[in-house]
Amino acid sequence: MTDKNKWLHIAIIIGIVGILMFSYLGSQPLMDPDEPVYAETAREMLQVHDFISPRIYGDFWYDKPPMYYWLVAAASQVFGGGEFAARFPSAFFAVGGSLLVYLSGRKLFNERAGLLAALVLGTSLEYFYLGNAAVTDMTLTFFLLAALLSFLHKNYYLLYSFAALGVVTKGPVALFFCVVIIGGYLMLTSTLATVKQMKAGKGILLFAVIALPWYVAMYYFHGMDFIDTFLGFHNVTRFLQPEHSSGKLWYYYIPVVILGFFPWTAFLAQACYTGWKEQGQERKTCTFLLIWIVTVFGFFSLSQTKLVSYILPMYPPLAMLVGYYFDKAWTQGRYKALKLSAIAFGGAAAILIAGLSYASAVVSAELIFPVRMIAGVLTILAAAVLYHSYRHDFGKVFITYVVGMVVFTAFLMLHTLPVIIPAVSVKPMVEEFKQQYDGQAPVYIAKFYRPGFVYYSGLAGIELNSEELAAAVLEKNDKAYFIVQKEKYDKLNSDIRSKLRVLAAHEDKILFVRDGN
User: Fold this and answer.
1) Which pLDDT value is given to residue 355?
2) Could you give the CA distance from residue 322 to residue 310 in angstroms, rounded to a whole number?
């Protein structure tokens, strides 16, 4: 394959994945509660000119290492702040991750398999979602992907460097995955002697130079408070104890992967099975990718705190296996497998359409029309995939999936998301609040909405846990504003509510004022 074709493929990946990741970054408000946390923390770093100790609401904040805050702060300096800047690092690394998958896949497998894998990754639903979100997961996934692929290509200094950057992005979990995945691979393939070639002495020193300075500085400035909160609570305790009811569900990530890897879910079983049974020169690569997948999936399934975004680091190896499988089936003319995957996709699309239709009818009448539009897109996509599959046209099947996802995500972002924004972002309520606020009275904010409120209003407010609402309302007689969950307001007895004046209500949120005497 000539360099001209290589650069053409890079342009195709940047064009398609870039459209998916950058087209919508600034079009919608930050979603509660996670996105505003990262945006506000980066903004406060810039305000106080302290890039060592993250803080929010003026208080030190030990939730995550600083990498994403640094990136958002840098993007804010370039783009002037706002939603686009807050999400820019995720979009940038999402495109970068697809390019890494291509550049590695073309060497590990072949040119076409690398291109297919990159487009599979870039058009999978959860990868798209997190590439458009101001959270750390895409950045961690990129550094972890770069580290593990560096190992496969025997670029060991890059392995240590990217692993260290992962540790500065989300903590020890990045190092854990590198050690377990690489160690498991070396043991399963009986190649432990490779350790002697990995330049461990210099590599560990390089890792320490990159990863440790921030941790040392934080311990120097904050002592055991940092250790107990960051390592003790946010790493150990959250792994051992659930923060949400989902942590008790051992199967939580099965439907997450099935939906999150859409539309390529129909190829998952065949791709993983092909990789497991591979006997050719690609066997070791497939084994490594499978160990990678199982390790990430198993670790987060065991974790008692579960979030949809945690599972993202397993998507790149899944995409590489699917790209390899699709290319192999294409080369060998496995038309039956192509038809079966098309039928499976049609069934999955039908279930998704039914679920969306039911949810829109139950949740909001405003969602019925955009959901019908999405259902129409999915129906056309399924029909086109089935048609080209029965005509044995692998190329058109793949193109249909890619183009279909570009269209599907456009409808999702432009027609569906705007309808649900009042339910997932406090920004519309903040705009109401600004029109009503007298500029002096205290403001009480439900904990869940506080990051977004602070980011969009510039006021820190007073954090209010839901069980404290009645006490806070009755505590004083002076004027005060409240933004809380509507269900919590509805539970207040009538005598208390008679003393309050509702100013606005958006979906699950309500703004009211206690006028005082």
Assistant:
1) 75
2) 21
Nearest 5°: CA angle at 171, between 166 and 173? 80
Pairing verdict, β 443-446 and 500-506: unpaired
User: For 19-46, what is each residue's pLDDT tens digit?
Assistant: 999 999 998 999 999 999 999 999 999 9
Q: Rounded CA gap, 25 and 77, in Å? A: 16
- Whether this prediction's pTM lies above 0.85 is answered by yes
Contact, 408 vs 385, CB < 8 A? no
CB-based contact 62:54 (threshold 8 Å):
yes
Rounded to 10 deg, the angle between the 82-108 and 3-22 helix axes is 150
Kindly tell me the burial class for residue 517, based on how many C-beta atoms sit within 10 Å of its own C-beta (0-12, 13-18, 19 or more). Answer: exposed
Pair 467, 504: CB distance under 8 Å: no
Q: Tokens 């939603």 appear where?
A: 83
Q: What residues form DSSP beta bridges with 446?
A: 464
Backbone phi and psi for residue 298, each to the nearest 5 degrees, phi listed first? -65, -45
Q: Can you spell out the DSSP letters for 434-490?
A: HHH--SSS-EEEEGGGHHHHHHHH----EEE-GGGHHHHHHH-SS-EEEEEEHHHHH
The span from the CA of 40 to the CA of 265, in Å, is 36
Provide the residue type at 298 as one letter. Answer: G
The residue length of the chain stands at 517
Instruction: For residues 345-354, give the mean pLDDT.
Output: 81
Give the integer Cα–Cα distance in Å for 82 and 39. Answer: 8
Longest dimension (CA), the chain: 82
Two tokens, residue 47:
């305000």
Classify 504 as helix, strand or coil.
Answer: strand
Confidence of residue 361 (pLDDT cuts 50, 70, 90): low
Contact present, 53 and 218 (Cβ < 8 Å): yes
Strand partners, 483: 445, 511
Q: What is the pLDDT of residue 517?
A: 62
Q: Which amino acid is at 277?
A: K
Confidence of residue 503 (pLDDT cuts 50, 70, 90): very high
Q: Rounded mean pLDDT of 251-269?
A: 91
Q: CA-based angle 120:126:128, to the nearest 5?
A: 70
Binning pLDDT at 50, 70 and 90, where does residue 126 land? very high
Residue 501 phi, psi (nearest 5): -125, 115
Long-range Cβ contacts of 410-416 (<8 Å, 24+ apart):
410/23, 411/370, 411/373, 411/374, 411/377, 412/374, 413/23, 413/24, 413/27, 413/28, 413/132, 414/24, 414/27, 415/369, 415/370, 415/373, 415/374, 416/367, 416/370, 416/371, 416/374
